[in-house]
Structure formats: C-alpha cells, structure tokens
Amino acid sequence: MREQLKSVHNQHVKNWKKLATKKFRRQTNRYLLDGWHLVNEALHNGAQVEQLIGTAAELDKHSDIVSLVDEVYEVTPEIIKHITETVSPQGICAVAELPATYGIPSEINGAWLMLDSVQDPGNVGTMVRTADAAGFAGVVVNEKTADIFSPKVVRSMQGSQFHLRLFNGDLKKWIGDFNKIKAPVYGTELNPQARNFREVQTPETFALIMGNEGNGMDKDLLELTDQNLYIPMRGRAESLNVAVSAGILMFELNKEGGQGQQG
Questions:
Q1: 43, 64 in Cβ contact below 8 A?
Q2: CATH number of the structural domain spanning residue 216
Q3: DSSP code of 161?
Q4: Residue 164 lies in a domain
Q5: Helix, strand or coil for residue 229?
Q6: Share above pLDDT 70 across residues of the chain, in percent, rounded to a whole number
Q7: pLDDT at 257
Q8: Residue 200: count of CB within 10 angstroms of its CB
Q9: For residues 246 and 207, what is the distance between their CA atoms, to the nearest angstrom?
Q10: What integer best gives the mean pLDDT of the chain?
Q11: How confident is the model at residue 192 (pLDDT cuts 50, 70, 90)?
Q12: How far apart are CA 53 and CA 71, in angstroms?
C-alpha cells in the first residue's frame, strides 16, 4: 500500500525538505537519500530505511525494492525536485535513520581518517569515499567540518557511509585515545620539519589527519601528532586539493590494509 502526495505543501513534503538542514536532521535523527544507488546501498547494508519516496514510474519499475519498505509515498516529479534540489533527480528518495556518530569506540583498530575543519562538502564526501576505497576503518570529523549527512556530502560519499564507521568528535580526545594504545597519529603540513610520506612505515592501526582547505591543520593538533607528513611535488603547483592529497596519503599509508577489490 502506498500513499499518493501531490502538493509541496503537504506536511510530509515539508519535513523532507527540512532534512536539508543540520538542525532538523539532528532533531529527527533522520536524513535523506537521493537516488536508487544510495537507496540500494542502505537496504543492502542493513540501514534503517523508514520511508521510500518516488514517482509512480520509478516505484513501478522496482517493486522488489519497494516491498522492503513499510512506508511508501508516490509523489510528483515536482515534489522530488523540491526536496532534493538536484538538477536532474532520478525520481526516488528515502528517509533513513542517522547512525550513532558520537563517542569513541571501546576498541580502535585499523586505519582512521580525521578531518579538521574541512569545509567543502564535496571534499568531505570524496575523502570518506576514498577512505572506504583505501580500506580505512572509519572517519572522524570535528564540529568545524561540513556535516557528514548534509545532502551534498551524502551525494559525494556515494554510499560509503554504509561501509565504514563515521564519527563526530573532539580530535584532541581521539588523538589521546590513539596515544593510549600506542598507535601513531600523522598530521599533514607544508613545513621543512615535516616528513616525506614515502618514508613512513605504518602499523596496522594509525590515524591520518587532514586540515582545512586554506589554512591546513590547527596548530594545537599539529603539536599532538607523532609525525607530520608532506607530499613532495615535482611540478610548480604550490599545493594540492585536500581530497587529492588525502587520497595519495591514504592509499600509500594503508597499502597492506587496503588490499581488496579492484576499482
């Protein structure tokens, strides 16, 4: 059984629209998934999908997936465009429960990426997706980093939020917990005292911190790391995009842990 909605003024539609805001996501503990790929990833990875929203054509084409969700809403293309703000929406969305992202795990294992004040949603999503591809266990972001469940970050992650652990937290506290288990934490900076990333041999468990696009890592955090790394550049560019830098470092530092399927 599915309910038909035709007006953007319907209360359900208003609530879906408000999921674009961080405040409403946290109030309701919900966020929006846009497109079949994300809906499939959520359902196949055990995420709690509470509502499925789609045009009649899309819902009819995928009755097998529709049957997996209790609340199904048939809406107009205008409603889909209204709640997603994408130029060419696929005609399908879902409301999913936010995973628990606060606190620190009782046991920390594997490679972890920490993001310090990375503000561009595309960069954040790309780094989460790359961490997934490089075999990282999780990603930690501080409050000054773009919200990991904002629509732009979710689109950029492409479902990687279902494959690794995501946390919000105080990076100083996280560094302290890595120190307790004697796992190294690597910072990143353009500094003569920093070390060439190719010279580093990482253990199974470690953390890599990437900083703000313009200002880099916070100085207080740089003082807490075990080593700070840089990427030597042969050309004349002054710097690399933070997501590109993170990709290079993650695959190099986690060479053993990242051996999985070919991309």
A1: no
A2: 3.40.1280.10
A3: G
A4: yes
A5: strand
A6: 97
A7: 57
A8: 16
A9: 12
A10: 94
A11: low
A12: 9
Tokens of 128: 């989460």
- Rounded Cα–Cα distance for residues 40 and 64 (Å): 11
pLDDT tens digits, residue range 151-178? 999 999 999 999 999 999 999 999 999 9
> Could you tell me the residue range of the domain that residue 91 belongs to?
3-97
Same domain, 171 and 212: yes
Residue 114 CA to residue 127 CA, distance in Å, equals 10
198 within domain boundaries? yes
Tokens 């990375």 belong to 118
User: Is 84 in the same domain as 116?
Assistant: no
What is the rounded (10 degree) CA torsion for 210, 216, 219, 225? 20
Distances (CA, A) of 120 to 105, 106, 126: 27, 30, 10
Say which CATH number the domain at 23 has: 3.30.1330.30
Whole-model pTM? 0.93
d(CA 102, CA 99): 9
Q: Of how many residues is the chain composed? A: 263
Q: How many CB atoms lie within 10 A of CB 108?
A: 18
Q: Is residue 263 part of a domain?
A: no
Residue position matching structure tokens 């807490």: 224
49 phi and psi, to 5 degrees? -95, 115
Question: Is residue 259 predicted with pLDDT exceeding 90?
Answer: no
Count how many domains the chain has: 2
List, for residues 137-155, the tens digit of each pLDDT value: 999 999 999 999 999 999 9
